Amino acid sequence: MSIATMTSKGQITVPKDVRDDLRLTAGSRVMFVRLRNGQYRIVPRTGSVEDFIGMLYDPDAAPMTTEEINEAIAEGGAASGLRGMR
Question: Is the pTM higher than 0.70?
Answer without folding.
Answer: no
